[in-house]
Amino acid sequence: MPTGSKKPSMFSNPRRRLRLEWYRVKRRLEEIRMGWAYKYTLSKQKPRPKMSLRKVGPTAQALYRQMYTAFADGDTTTLSTICTEGLLSSFRSRITARSRNERFRWTLHQFLRGPKFVSQRIAVLPYKGAAIRQVVVRLQSRQSLDRVVSQGRDRSDGLAFDNDGGKAVSEYLVLQRRMWKEKEEPWMIWGTTEETDPDIVLDSDTPL
What we know:
The chain is α+β, with helices and mostly antiparallel strands. The protein contains 5 helices and 7 strands, in the order ααααβββββββα.
């Protein structure tokens, strides 16, 4: 969903802004409905799945740190435990393409703000007690990536770069958790996404 200055103005385009806010309300209600179904109808085992989003933010931060540290180190073993297959395949290809005389060091200097929950989607699979749950979390951090080669050291244009204190980066991390045979599996990283353009949102919605 668009935020901040990307939202239509309430003063110059109130109708468009109201449509966007109405779409946001409908999305939230749908998320609540699907969350209720996920918790109470897909699994009869107790304790039931916890739908609280309070722990999702810290989990996203921890996995984010693990992911980029492992990617910089070329550690595909760690990546295979925290990334879904599509993202893992992408990382493996990029690591394989590196020169033998270069290595990277990624540094997360700090998170600039707390993690922000953006949205949630749940898809029920055509099997008993099976579903996929995805959440989007916005992470804002200051980070840097050094590229070290055998002849010396320079800066990489990979994840982020800066000569001193790092570069401010804002990313929308998508976490995925699968329920299989009524049991939840650990959160994994599906990938990242972009903030949705208002035109795309409103074109997919029914006008007021």
